[in-house]
Design a protein that fits this description.
Length: about 425
């Protein structure tokens, strides 16, 4: 046990808890002023941020990080400009704090209002991408929440520099600088201590690989909002427009295969499999996709150009989040069979049906147990910006209290304001 790290983490969490009382009642103008200053400082500090990031990139290459991980880690002037634009988009969003959700009047005259309110202190655990430091801090500030940020060791120098920008913006606006804090150590024990501090921290949101998320969920005394992985599915129905289905399949797999809302499984109704699979498989293979197929799919594709490089799918393949140009394919007997397969193999993230039948779409969307279900559209739209939330702090596959992309409102809880005229309970 490292007592110094334990004291550091506890002190940071205690200060954050104290700051949350102040931040919760900050008016919208003040919050937007802080965010505006963060945007200005990002622009002014671009060269310094790139310089600090270069330290992380150099360490990453020396430690054998893959090129894909190096790319996720890199801060370029363009990415800094994108972060800055993202901050300004959040400024333009409505402030959720104080929003009235509903109102009712009881027979005794009591007026009960359900009002949106900040959660308090949110711990955010993440890996690799330093832009998450800004994204999460800004969303928390706008929603009146204090953030405790714990980034990955591979982005340590970048995260420190970004955290200092946030702190400077808070100080210049006369707001408690503990309203957003980065844990200033890469020691794993700091995370373990943080997860025990349920007297100070109200919610934990992990963003990263399945291993990190499972560690957090299994070791936290604090409620965790999470998604373990994104095994998304596309089902081509017997009533599908096959050209539309082909376009959606290619987009949902190929547009950006390494993200959590890309499809990993393609299910095709047996009545349209002969017509749909050959041309679609050929297009997917041209895009560089490796197809892992069941025997019925292989039989259909054996004599087509889409059969190049086919691999026999294992049961594990249909559960796998490939994060790559790999797609598992299976022919299904019926709509009911497809729904059963989606619920069995999917991770509750995003699933889609392509069909001209409203009845089939309705049955699929009601029966599939996912945070986002689509009819005739790509799963790639499961994203806070695409949903009109402006930004997101993550995508939840939980049921309590948030599900799907988490924007400003999902970072709030609520309280009841009860207005009376002297009523007492008999």
């Amino acid at each position: 046990m490292n007592e110094d790290i334990e004291k550091l983490t506890q002190s940071l969490a205690k200060k954050a808890h104290s700051a949350s009382r102040e931040l919760a009642i900050l008016d919208t103008g003040k919050k937007n002023a802080i965010l505006g200053r963060i945007a200005e400082l990002l622009e002014q500090s671009s060269d310094e941020l790139v310089s600090q990031n270069e330290k992380d990139l150099r360490n990453g290459r020396e430690n054998g990080l893959s090129e894909a991980m190096i790319d996720r880690l890199a801060l370029t002037p363009k990415r800094i400009a994108d972060m800055t634009e993202g901050v300004r988009q959040v400024i333009a969003l409505p402030d959720p704090v104080g929003e009235e959700i509903e109102r009712s009047t009881r027979p005794n005259g009591l007026e009960i209002r359900k009002i949106r309110a900040p959660m308090g202190v949110i711990g955010i655990i993440y890996e690799s991408r330093p832009n998450v430091t800004i994204d999460c801090a800004v969303l928390c500030l706008k929603s009146g929440n204090v953030s405790i940020l714990r980034g990955g060791k591979e982005a340590f120098h970048s995260n420190l520099a970004l955290s200092e920008i946030i702190r400077q913006a808070l100080v210049e606006n006369d707001v408690n600088p503990d309203s957003s804090a980065l844990i200033p150590t890469t020691d794993r024990e700091a995370l373990e201590y943080l997860l025990r501090l349920d007297q100070y921290v109200h919610c934990i949101i992990p963003r990263g690989g399945e291993g990190l998320i499972r560690f957090v969920a299994e070791n936290s005394r604090i409620p965790v909002i999470k998604h373990y992985k994104g095994v998304c599915n596309l089902y081509v129905d017997s009533e599908a427009d096959l050209e539309l289905a082909r376009k959606i399949a290619i987009n949902a797999k190929c547009q950006r295969p390494g993200v959590c809302n890309a499809i990993e499984n393609l299910f095709v109704h047996q009545d349209v499999a002969d017509a749909f699979l050959p041309a679609s498989a050929e297009n997917l293979v041209k895009e560089g996709v490796e197809l892992r197929v069941d025997p019925r799919t292989r039989a259909i594709l054996e004599d087509s150009s889409g059969s190049n490089g086919l691999k026999d799918a294992t049961e594990d393949d249909y559960h796998e989040e490939f994060h790559d140009l790999v797609l598992a394919v299976k022919v299904t007997d019926s709509l009911e069979d497809a729904i059963e397969q989606v619920n069995r193999y999917g991770s509750g993230h995003s699933d889609a049906i392509v069909t001209k039948s409203e009845a089939h779409a309705k049955q699929f969307m009601e029966a599939v147990d996912s945070s986002s279900v689509y009819w005739n559209a790509s799963t790639r739209f499961t994203d806070g910006f695409e949903f009109g939330l402006g930004a997101e702090i993550g995508i939840s596959t939980d049921r309590l209290h948030a599900r799907g992309p988490m924007g400003l409102r999902e970072l709030c809880t609520y309280k009841y304001h009860v207005l009376g005229t002297g009523q007492i309970r008999e």
